[in-house]
Amino acid sequence: MTFHTDEHVSEAVAQGLRRRGIDVTTTPQAGLLGTEDLEQLAFCRRENRVMVSHDTDMLRLAAAGVTHAGIAYCHNQKYKAGGLISRLLALSRRVPAEQMQNRVEFL
Questions:
Q1: At 93, is the secondary structure helix, strand, or coil?
Q2: What is the overall mean pLDDT for the chain?
Q3: To 5 degrees, how large is the angle CA 48–CA 9–CA 24?
Q4: Residue 102 — left, alpha, or beta (φ > 0 → left; ψ -120 to 50 → alpha)?
Q5: Quick check: pTM over 0.85?
Q6: How many whole angstroms separate alpha carbon 45 and alpha carbon 16?
Q7: Cβ-count burial of 42 within 10 angstroms (0-12 exposed, 13-18 middle, 19+ buried)?
Q8: Tell me: the pLDDT tens digits for 43-65?
Q9: Among 45, 11, 8, which Cα is nearest to 25's?
Q10: Which among 49, 41, 44, 48 is positioned nearest to 66, based on CA atoms?
Q11: Domain-by-domain residue ranges, the chain?
């Protein structure tokens, strides 16, 4: 499973995942800062990356039927970076990437 973090997720999460061998891109790295959520999800679909987000707008888009490669949602105050990294690692071990298509995981 590969991930993409939106601009609301700490860079420390991406760095921690990379140190553990996980392929992850970030919104700034992908040149997507300031873009609409639909464009972010389209990028993730093209790249087959699960969107990691604290943004409830992603949940609204998924509920409205927008197709996506998967969304891993976590309220922004629920975990520090280490806790979020642990949960994303567990998700990547528990769920095959192809089963994340149009699926939302609440972390």
A1: helix
A2: 95
A3: 35
A4: left
A5: yes
A6: 23
A7: middle
A8: 999 999 999 999 999 999 999 99
A9: 11
A10: 41
A11: 3-106
